[in-house]
Design brief:
The complex is a heterodimer. By secondary structure, chain A is α+β, with helices and mostly antiparallel strands. Chain A has helices at about 1-5, 10-25, 40-50, 60-75, 100-120, 130-145, 150-160, 180-190, 200-205, 210-225, 235-245, 250-270, 270-290, 295-305, 315-335, 340, 345-350, 360-370, 375-380, 385-390, 410-420, 455-470, and strands at about 35-40, 80-85, 90-95, 390-395, 400-405, 430-435, 440-445, 475-480, 480-490, 495. Chain A folds into five domains: about 1-120 and about 270-295, no CATH class; about 130-175 and about 235-270; about 180-225; about 310-420, no CATH class; about 425-495, no CATH class. In chain A, the strands form three sheets. In chain A, strands 6-7-8-9-10 form a five-stranded mixed beta sheet. A three-stranded mixed beta sheet of chain A has the order 1-3-2. A two-stranded antiparallel ribbon of chain A has the order 4-5. Chain B is α/β, with parallel strands linked by helices. Chain B has helices spanning about 1-15, 100-110, 145-155, 205-225, 245-250, 260-270, 295-310, 330-335, 355-360, and strands spanning about 40-45, 60-65, 70-75, 95-100, 125-135, 175-185, 190-195, 225-235, 240, 280-285, 315-320, 345-350. In chain B, the strands form three sheets. Chain B has a six-stranded mixed beta sheet, with helices on both faces. Chain B has a two-stranded antiparallel ribbon with strand order 1-4. In chain B, strand 7, helix 4 and strand 8 (about 225-235) form a beta-alpha-beta unit. In chain B, helix 2 (about 100-110) crosses helix 4 (about 205-225), helix 4 runs parallel beside helix 9 (about 355-360) and helix 6 (about 260-270) packs parallel to helix 7 (about 295-310). The model of chain B is unreliable at about 30-35, about 75-90 and about 120-125 (pLDDT under 50). Classes of the chains: A alpha+beta, B alpha/beta. Chains A and B meet through helix 3, helix 4, strand 2, helix 7 and helix 12 of A and helix 1, strand 2, strand 3, strand 4 and helix 3 of B.
């Protein structure tokens, strides 16, 4: 039904066909991409659902929808493109857009689609998420019928307030190997098995030092076995799902929230690079590979200027991404890499450096395959780029109540960007002890790196955690430059020095 | 539709009908956001579920662009264009609207009726509003940017544009002119008289509530009348007329004689604003702790005989001070009843109650 209503006009179908073909001809390798034509109401709805046509019932989609439709009504922002990481890839075109805008969006979408398919950080993501989301929705609906809306929604609220406590790298980590029974036994005996030998050879075959070291290792192992979890773990949602005293429906809901959080993580990890890549290709497509008609070019430029606009005090990921990619392309095209180049101190010599290496495009494809935002910035944001794009660090001046440019130092600027990107902007919090004080209490540790946690939120989150764990919960963090352990025991919060 | 159910649920939570425990996370609180020159930012209500996140990061960040160290930047201006397939940021969204639009929104949200005017209704007040673009027009209204854009388009399309010598000469067809239309507005004059009790019991929070309420009244009535005159009266045991600034800032102390304010208001109206030509609105805010019963009866008779016949509307908002709220609201209610069409009474307990107060004040369409 919907497919019929949203069927594409022939004109658009032809454009899609052409751009698909052209994208592949320049080396992009996108998923099969399905476009649907929707009106702004539908688009806002889909966007509010995080890109999907259906999600589990929850008020926050309503909130998102309200925000989007109000910003649309007041002319604040328009969603140009909406594309989801799925195989086949789904993308939505706004019916009201001009033909130039549609072409641009289609080209842009092919950039994303290629990125989803080929970027390493997406390789563990679920490519049948469209179905999975629908499954999640129907599971939650069923649970609502069984347990009641209020109950389920309240539980979802709790999970959502812990949603960011995942380990974004865990899909790439190999599972820690389980100890065999033999090893366990050995560890518990705290005894090192010697290699059989004649007594006079013993000191050579089983040297004393080595035996001591082995013993130390075994003792450590044994201690680790007794601690729970064995290693501090960042995947709080999984830990709670496994060990918190939940009912079976709660466990399912928690697993759903966790699953969806992991699905979105790579997109947050590659925002700059992904947008930069798509913008790089759409601009190339529109201006040289499948060039627009001369009568369209000004409208296109107008629109492009909007996409990469520089808002003072606001880092635009489209802009940063595409500019940095172009910077890299230029460097590798002109041989501006390697030991010889890197050792030049004089910026003027660096600027004029030129060898006809022509490796730019190859390098860009390598970046699209291997990098995420952090590694991209870390490896390629150099001093020349920082000066060229006039980046600065601003600070709030409490005396004047104004934000002022505080610093243009390259390493400082880079440090701050990297810090903002670390753990996709979330604080790093791990579970250290699930049996704290030997009373089954939960102890978290916040790895403090300069910024405190929002304190009132922290208190509320401890409450949420308590609801799941049902035993007192603690977190070690820093509050106003002093190490503190904050706890919630079901009735009151407490804070103590550590 | 699935979204409608979610949207409904969200609205119910925001309005505090269900899940009251979430209400405290509603990031709305105040009605007024930043106030710019001509526009005002109003926040769209959001429920911010608490998470482990960084607190105030001392307000620093990264930007791009020219400027010396120490130059001012304005971070985080609204949302950008685009917005790809990922989830939106968490910070509260603010919408910039003009005061005119704001009044419209207010009217819609509170379902306020438009005001029926009294006084002259002649439509001879003609205003020019530039509203569109035409291909013909007088040279004085030529729109340079649009004209240039058309000329640029044409010269590129015709392959006449020379990148080394970017000369663009508009021809007749490229020309664009502003067009205007006449807007007729009824000439009806309105006077608002704000009266506030500044006796010792009115604290800063009470004044803030009065200020917020007065702002919204102003916005609404300005949208309904072309000219709006405002008078400010403060009173404790005596009343005086003051400027707007003083009105909100004065900290007086002493007793409360409400009648003093009503007398002054009456004098003002008789002297300067004849009732036949002005739509008069009287707003009075107090904590309701009048000095004596005698004074209260004097107030009632003043209202009954002098003020009400002259005014479109008399509104009394009672705020709650540290000492609780007084008797005056009940006295008024007893005398005028719930349904007097010229009298609106509201108890404004805290900031949250302002909206309900406004609705009561302005809901009569007078």
């Amino acid at each position: 039904m919907i497919r019929e209503k949203n069927a594409l006009p022939l004109e658009l179908q032809n454009i899609i066909g052409e751009l698909d073909e052209k994208s592949r001809s320049v080396g992009l390798n996108p998923f099969t991409t399905i476009f649907e034509l929707v009106d702004f109401k539908q688009l806002n709805e889909i966007a509010a659902f995080g890109g999907f046509p259906t999600r589990y019932p929850h008020w926050r989609w309503g909130m998102e929808y309200e925000k989007l439709s109000k910003s649309y009504t007041y002319g604040l922002s328009v969603i140009y493109e909406m594309v989801i990481n799925n195989d086949p890839c789904y993308a939505y075109l706004l019916r009201a857009n001009s033909l130039v805008a549609q072409k641009t969006v289609i080209a842009h979408v092919y950039g994303h689609s290629d990125f989803f398919k080929n970027n390493y950080w997406f390789c563990k993501s679920n490519r049948k998420m469209l179905n999975q989301m629908a499954n999640h929705a129907s599971v939650v609906r069923k649970l609502i019928d069984e347990v009641g809306q209020e109950e389920v929604e309240n539980f979802i609220d709790i999970c959502l307030s812990l949603e960011n406590l995942i380990d974004i790298h865990s899909p790439f980590k190999s599972k820690p190997k389980k100890l065999t029974d033999e090893e366990k036994e050995q560890a518990s005996k705290k005894h090192v098995t010697k290699i059989e030998s004649k007594p006079y050879m013993d000191t050579y075959i089983n040297p004393h030092d080595f035996l001591e070291k082995q013993k130390q290792k075994i003792i450590e192992q044994a201690e680790k076995m007794q601690s729970f979890p064995e290693e501090p773990t960042q995947d709080l949602l999984q830990f709670l799902g496994e060990y918190a005293p939940l009912t079976s429906w709660q466990r399912r809901v928690l697993a759903i929230i966790r699953d969806e959080a992991y699905y979105y993580a790579p997109q947050a990890q590659t925002k700059i690079l992904n947008e930069g890549w798509a913008t790089y290709w759409h601009s190339k497509m529109m201006t040289s590979i499948a060039p627009l008609d001369v009568s369209e070019i000004i409208d296109y430029c107008d629109q492009y200027a909007g996409v990469v606009a520089n808002q003072p005090g606001h880092l635009n990921p489209y802009r940063l991404g595409v500019e940095l990619l172009r910077h890299v392309e230029e460097r590798w095209n002109r041989g501006k890499f390697g030991k010889e180049y890197m050792e030049i101190d004089d910026p003027k010599v660096r600027l004029e450096w030129g060898k006809d290496t022509g490796l730019g495009l190859k390098k860009l494809f390598e970046i699209r395959t291997l990098h995420n935002d952090i590694t991209f910035i870390e490896n390629f944001l150099d001093e020349d780029f920082c000066h060229k794009s006039k980046m600065f660090l601003y600070d709030f001046n409490p005396r004047t109540g104004k934000y002022v440019i505080a610093n243009r130092d390259f390493s400082e600027v880079k440090r701050v960007i990297l810090k903002q990107l670390t753990n996709i902007g979330n604080p790093i919090i791990k579970i250290v002890d699930g049996n704290f004080k030997n009373r089954g209490e939960l102890l978290l540790h916040h790895y403090h790196d300069g910024d405190d946690l929002k304190y009132d939120y922290l208190l509320e989150c401890l409450k949420s955690l308590y609801k799941l764990w049902t035993r007192p919960v603690h977190i070690e963090t820093v509050v106003e430059n002093a190490k503190r352990r904050v706890a919630f025991d079901g009735n009151t919060h407490s804070i103590e020095k550590i | 539709m699935a979204m409608e159910a979610d949207l409904n649920r969200f609205h119910k939570i925001v309005r505090g009908r269900i899940k009251k425990e979430l209400r405290k996370f509603v990031a709305n609180g105040e009605l007024i956001g930043r106030q710019g020159k001509k526009t005002i930012a109003i926040p769209i209500p959001r429920i911010d579920l608490p998470r482990f996140i960084y607190g105030q990061s001392k307000g620093s960040g990264i930007g791009e662009g020219a400027g010396e160290l120490g130059d001012e930047v304005k971070p985080g201006q609204g949302a950008g264009e685009g917005g790809a397939g990922e989830q939106a940021g968490d910070h509260a969204l603010e919408v910039d609207v003009t005061l005119e639009e704001l009044a419209g929104i207010l009217g819609d949200e509170l379902e306020l009726p438009n005001i029926l005017e009294k006084g002259k209704k002649n439509l001879d007040n003609r205003n020019v509003k530039y509203s569109g673009i035409l291909k013909q027009g007088p040279e004085s209204l030529s729109h340079f940017r649009r004209t240039y854009r058309e000329a640029l388009k044409r010269s590129i399309a015709a392959d006449e544009y020379d990148f080394d010598n970017p000369l663009v000469v508009p021809v007749k067809d490229d020309k664009r002119y502003r067009s205007f239309k006449f807007v007729y507005k009824p000439v009806a004059n309105a006077l608002i008289v704000y009266m506030m009790d500044v006796s010792g019991s009115m604290g800063d929070e009470q004044k803030e509530i009065v200020r917020l309420t007065a702002f919204w009244l102003d916005t609404w009535l300005s949208s309904q009348y072309k000219d709006l005159e405002k008078c400010y009266i403060i009173h404790d045991a005596t009343a005086k007329e003051v400027t707007q600034d003083t009105f909100y800032r004065t900290k007086e102390s002493g007793g409360t004689l409400i009648s003093s304010a009503y007398k002054l208001a009456n004098a003002l109206i008789e002297e300067r604003y004849p009732a036949g030509q002005w739509n008069i609105y009287l707003f009075h805010f107090s904590d309701g702790d009048n000095w004596s019963g005698n004074d209260t009866s004097e107030c009632l008779s003043l209202l009954q005989n002098k003020l009400l016949p002259a005014a479109n509307l008399f509104c009394y908002g009672q705020v709650e001070s540290r000492y609780g709220s007084g008797q005056f609201l009940r006295d008024l209610l007893k005398h005028f009843g719930e349904s007097n069409e010229k009298v609106s009474l509201a108890q404004i307990k805290d900031r949250e109650a302002i909206v309900d107060g406004l609705k009561k004040f302005l809901g009569k369409g007078r």
